[in-house]
Amino acid sequence: MSFQIALGPRERKSPFYDSTVTDGVSHMTIYNDMFMPVSYGDIDAEYRRLMQGVAMWDVAAERQVEIQGKDAERLVRYLTPRDLKDCAIGKGKYVPLCDHEGRLLNDPVLLRLEDDRFWLSIADSNVLLWVRAIAAEGGFDVSVQEPDVSPLAIQGPKAVDVVVDLFGGWVRDLKYFWFRQTELDGIPLVVARSGWSKQGGYELYLRDGTRGGALWDKVKKAGAAYGIGPGAPNYIERVESGLLSYGADTMPDSTPYEVGLEKMIDLDRPDDFIGKQALARVAKEGPARRLVGITFDGDPVSTNEHPWSVRVDGHIAGTVRAVCHSPRRAENIGIALLETKYADIGTVIEFKGEKASYKGEVVPQPLVPPGTPIPE
Ligand code: THG
């Protein structure tokens, strides 16, 4: 492969874009039509920093869909199969969205900012179109917008020290997934205890896109004492930890049951939600496929360009969705979406990658349990 991605105005730029370029971003992906850093060129250092120190990530491409108005809560409850229960202001929640056939559309984090104002912090699919259509067709009295909000993640065991130095000791008492609206020297923000890693940390939702460079610099300065460096949602750590990547791990017709989100589906809720009947059917019949952990042989791999086709005893069994070499298991690992009859632990699998053929097996998830340190 010998091409580059063309830079144009159609691909959106994050408020942190100039800062990430200055700090040496080497690889970008496109997510929600916006450039998102993937690496700064030293994958080992980026992994180590996340596991043992602290890293700052431009995740502005996790756009917000704001639902505001009299019927906002009712609409949010109708959009997700998850029971929001108390749904307190200041409490975030991981809420899958499904269509009427039970297919997973996105897996956002929900934030309730006020009684009648919610954000869906979305993964890579167009939720704005979907929510606007559902709201209009259903006659919900709401406005649905993409606000000027851009998350910056601070992740790793030392993230708490950086965020305490920036905001004060109260951030230590924030519970997992809870958040508070605040500011930093006049920069309006939401501070949340969340992020797409299992190493702990915070997300700063910048509420003024003109202040991206200023916020980046303040975090970088406060983090210097703790060895902060730039990073990105870490591919290796997320495969090890079993965090779902919508669109990478999932297929367009995947249901939450096949990708490990069954705990988020509350079929016993008395109220209706989109996909309820279809999901009840899948729950009864069982999902057609299963997202599983795998290990496999061969030289250390870095990534897969395509979903690799998997065979079991010569039969087509599914696809490998993500691969990497795990520093903590010291072997190749991955995530595969396999037909349920081929998804049992211990099933022997074979597949061909871009560079070699591999043999492996289905193993339990998470591939690396939380708290496992890197071997020295
Ligand atoms: N932060 C914010 N927005 C986001 C993401 C994020 N939008 C896109 C994407 N990530 C949404 N997907 C996820 C997937 C997993 C998690 C968060 C967002 C996650 N999962 C934990 C787990 O699986 O162990 C906890 C889930 C739970 O039990 O509630 O953190 O990262 N702002």
Task: Please provide a brief summary of the model.
With 376 residues, the protein is an alpha+beta fold.
What name does CATH use for the topology of one domain? Gyrase A, domain 2
Task: Label the structural class.
Answer: alpha+beta
Number of strands: 21
What is the CATH architecture annotation of one domain?
2-Layer Sandwich
Instruction: Determine and state the CATH class of one domain.
Output: Alpha Beta
User: What is the helix content?
Assistant: 10-25%
- Radius of gyration (CA) equals 21 Å
For the largest sheet, list the strands in their spatial order: 12-13-14-11-3-15
Shape: globular
Rounded mean pLDDT score: 97
- Give the H and E element order: HEEHEEHEEEEEHEEHEEEHEHHEEEEEE
- Identify the bound ligands: (6S)-5,6,7,8-tetrahydrofolate
Largest sheet properties:
6 strands, mixed
Report the CATH superfamily of one domain. Answer: Probable tRNA modification gtpase trme, domain 1
The residue ranges in which pLDDT falls below 50 over 5 or more consecutive positions are none
N-to-C span: 35 Å
The total of helices stands at 8
What portion of residues belong to β-strands?
25-35%
Please state the oligomeric state of the protein chains shown.
Answer: single chain
